[in-house]
């Protein structure tokens, strides 16, 4: 089996999942990285990560996926990992309204702590609980459109759309890398110059989200 | 008067982490070539491919261990057989019973011996009572009769209780007390966490409190667990669970300093293992937050085999926060002191994964506990590091840190830790 340090990959992408507590971030990562789902699991304290090797268009991508605790007070620990992420998956739970309302708050966090031009996708998780749904697909899509980001509804349990969502994000990052997105910090050029990432984050006062998606290019 | 029924010695199985109760069969993999993540997953790799009938059989083989954990076959690194010498257990119980009945004399005059006995481990049957006395929770509870009942009778604060409710099923789900939705254990956990959120509204509820409170509930009734939790949050680890987690962050940096001082080779090794994408980033080495957050904030309750957890807690209740540092140093020493061990972890990923899935060769009480005692940490040194880190990283909070130090010192005084191994006075 390949060792994690073998340089048998073309690109190394850093992804991060954020969103309210108990929306299913850890389960989404387990489904994607290990193809497993546990009905009993423990909450995430602090920050964790997994690796996944993944192939898109013949390119071997090594994904480092950071899992963050959802409770607000852990942001103080996780903020610095936003800066390293090239792609962020923002998750809410379709059965809990407040997790959807907080999406705006999480987007603001990404803006505050993330790299300019970081790729973001929005996920409404737990579609297996259709009978308990509180947030319609239309609402989720509308919010994503407003922020010019891609939207998926997933189920980590039933394995619905999970791979598709991660693939989409990886595609977006790959496209950016291949188009020589050297101007955007956090792209493939991280190998050369990640040094100033944290010095050049946008000011918290910035309101616009226009930079989130680099004009909405999806791949 | 004392229940000793669960301390008869005998063979016990020990679990530390919740195990999955329902793994779905594997789906065909997407087009990736190979899956690194499975590499160190050893213990459970067979599971998803097990046929249904066989799985049923495995479920039937689940059994409850000495400590109430539901143990399943196959978690070799998480559970181990341990035999307590029944005679020794009985002797220890006698000693502790005597101490408990003459507590004031012991805590006032014989603290060095008390410390030694905590290090040897408190008998299971008396652990809850000993923790209450060691922490000062007993006294606090007597002085505040009726307070817990009043706090739990208050109308739920929706925002806080919602987060707590979501965590009930995610706290030691493999322990019989907490496994069932709506079980007594889950109900008590809810009460204790809710009461604390009202008791200290500024701190409210922090997710890492749940495993701490649950560990207490395995040893004592809800009202006692509440006052013990109060002591942990307010006296032992003040500021750890507050909205900014400031005190924890400072301690994470202190751990780094202590590593550099006490295990320079290991510290250097760790700092050479950076997240691979940022070779040019101005860095301060491997971020201790990546490995010690769960260790410290849950007082190792989710990171070690249960018997080791209990031994660490026995020491912690007497010696306080320094035990967290000692355990961390012991883990690092056992994991990376040998050149071969370092060679086995060529990169950042291997290092952090190893620290997140510690092998029994590190965590077994027979190995870990003696190692812990190899690292004397002077209170004075801890204090010095504390101020240095506070100066560098949190200078604006100096006043708060001083307050914290004062409280820790107060706590030590009242918990009879006057006589330290280093024969220093409390700071």
Automatic annotation (TrEMBL), chain A:
Residues 178-219 are annotated as: Disordered. PROSITE patterns: RAB, RAS, RHO. The keyword Nucleotide-binding applies. Keywords: GTP-binding, Lipoprotein, Nucleotide-binding, Prenylation. SUPFAM superfamilies: P-loop containing nucleoside triphosphate hydrolases. One of its GO terms (molecular function) is GTP binding. Protein transport. Probably involved in vesicular traffic from ER to Golgi. Belongs to the small GTPase superfamily. Rab family. This is Ras-related protein Rab-1. It comes from Amphimedon queenslandica (Sponge).
From TrEMBL, chain B:
Keywords: GTPase activation. Coiled coil: none annotated. Residues 35-63 are annotated as: Disordered. Gene3D superfamilies: putative rabgap domain of human tbc1 domain family member 14 like domains, Ypt/Rab-GAP domain of gyp1p, domain 1, Ypt/Rab-GAP domain of gyp1p, domain 3. The keyword Coiled coil does not apply. PROSITE patterns: TBC_RABGAP (PS50086). One of its GO terms (molecular function) is GTPase activator activity. One of its GO terms (cellular component) is plasma membrane. It comes from the Eukaryota. Residues 121-320 form the Rab-GAP TBC domain. Residues 52-63 have a biased composition (Basic and acidic residues). The keyword rRNA-binding does not apply. This is Rab-GAP TBC domain-containing protein. It comes from Amphimedon queenslandica.
